[in-house]
User: Fold this.
Amino acid sequence: MRRTAEMSALLVEDDATTRALIERQLRRAGVEVLALESGERVLRDAADRYTSFDVVILDIHLPGMSGLELASLIQARRPDQPIIVITGDPDPRLAREALSSGPVSYLLKPFELSQLLAAVERAKLDRSEAAPAASSSKGWLDLVEQSYMGSAHARRVGRVALAVAEALPGMESRLDIGDLLVTAWSHELGRSGSDGDPVAIASEGARVLNDLGSSTKVVRCVRSLAERHDGTGGPGGIAGDEIPLISQVVAVADALEHYAAASIGEEATPAEAVDRGLSLLKAQRGTIFRPEIVDTACRQRSRLITICADSDLMRQGAGPAVDALTDSREPADSGAWSARRHGTG
Assistant:
């Protein structure tokens, strides 16, 4: 059956054969298709329009940013964006996570192309009937790209934060993955408009996000990034459970990413870099960082090593993250960086 040529789809699939097959069938059905192989390519080549498609079709297991991470970022900007998740992994936890995040369809490979086309048709109908949703933070990704540390650092912090959050007991009811990733990606936005003080960075970042129309929850999470678990030295003087859980997860992820970057810059292996970072986090467990999150990060050691090994941190020899730790704007010592970041130095 021929479909309307007014239909548009963004296809993100890393396997070239599968991508070509799906793209060909969609085009035969009259769908205009943009086919890309990774989330990073989407954010680089289609950042200004990836929420304008009638439907987004993506694989869960993508190189670098996962399909679920990309879906969360898309839905943070366009909550009513229909997404079709495809995967060959039968793990039911993946299905539950995908289906819990919004207007998402889930197809397990191998599937009939008729099933995919039916899901595309449903997605178009769902979007046409949905009430227009306010798009949060227009130009947000441009600001992330232009921020002091850049989008590569933001992506790494997001991946680490997600790895830690997914292992927290009862994670599904305790935090929103979309809000977590937006907070992680936005945590350095305030640096360009501040004097480098961590409280000023958090406050300025929250102001920028508020001006861009981000949710009040995300704005509060970014504003709380400089708070300490023990309640001393933070801008609001709040402690423990008073600090948003997302803020505490991102603070641990950001610190660990900086610690690992510094070690990679000294030619450490990914395992050595992660182990050094975890040891530094444990030294600040209960003071700066929430013990539960530090302990969870330690349990996720293998996954964190994988993230460190396959990230652009390794491919680029650490790049801006290490430069940021060794230039005149940041102390070269990771412990000194953490003290300044959290208001103790």
Remarks:
- The chain has a mean pLDDT of 75.
- The longest strand covers residues 8-12.
- The chain has 18 helices and five strands.
- The beta strands are 8-12, 32-36, 55-59, 83-87, 104-108.
